[in-house]
Amino acid sequence: xxxxxxxxxxxxxxxxxxxxxxxxxxxxxxxxxxxxxxxxxxxxxxxxxxxxxxxxxxxxxxxxxxxxxxxxxxxxxxxxxxxxxxxxxxxxxxxxxxxxxxxxxxxxxxxxxxxxxxxxxxxxxxxxxxx
Length: 131
Fold this sequence. Notes:
alpha+beta
């Protein structure tokens, strides 16, 4: 009973007052700001995911290069295709070992490009040939 009287008293007290548009605008602004922050966060997470994927691809290919001693033409085409599928453009492999090396020689995989067509990145992997 007491709760009903309290609620009824609050309703009667506020019945004659007009709503304040400022309260509604501030709530709307906060929701809009939170939405913008969430969208920015999701965009950053997508970029980080693509960079991580590029790092994993580079790791796989440097392991293959260790076995063969260099990056073969077939493997280069496959590497470019995998990177493209992950949203990497302007792929440049300058500095990558592309000629046969002897056992124990250094092999290098250097990948440069743009993630999402906008952000530059470079992935450098070095190892020794075990062919």
